[in-house]
Amino acid sequence: MNQPLAGYAPAPVTARMENHGNHMLKVAMQTGNDLLARVGSMVAYEGFIQYEPNPPAVRQIAKDWMTGEGAPLMKCSGDGLLYLADYGANVVVINLNGDGISVNATNLLAFDAHLTWGVERVKGLAKFAGQGLWNTRISGQGWVALTSRGKPIVVDCGGGEDETYVDPDALVAWSPNLKVKGKRSFKAQSLIGRGSGEAYQMAFSGQGIVVVQPSEDSTDRLRVRG
């Protein structure tokens, strides 16, 4: 019985975070190196790991999260191996080496608790849809895991004058140093986006990357938010 399943066994741990296949995250947990993860994302664990939903540190930061699109977080602590997933979505692991990343909250799976993070409004978009778009910005030395509905592409903006345009419903994350602005399109509305109204795109320019998933989110991220 064991032999046919051997190819699915977890590989030896080589990093704090790594993929187990395309749809699962494996985290090497150690005491003192806590993790913040999406509530409900734990699918298995080995060792002794404790969970605290919506800890005080998260409540303090998330009190300014006015959009309602943020996923509740839990603090994971202890020693062992932790496995996380999000309804079969692809998992993307990023090692921040003193850098930062701006993440769509619905695509945030887990990150090291010691990283600096907060919720911020994306500048340049408020005039297109009420209060605009809010994202989670994470920076420092540590690991972040994102989810993508399908295998994502990573677009290098290259630092040139040309802009990269992305449907906001397909956007996963981007380098926070990129310049962002909104673009409204009338003629292309039957080709871009899913709605029959005005088509919105986000234009990125500067030096950095944009992560795009091959599936549009089920929510309208540029609707008016109260």
From TrEMBL:
Coiled-coil parts of chain: none
InterPro entries, sorted: AIM24, AIM24_sf, Trp_RNA-bd_attenuator-like_dom
Highest taxon of the lineage: Bacteria
Name this protein carries in UniProt: AIM24 family protein
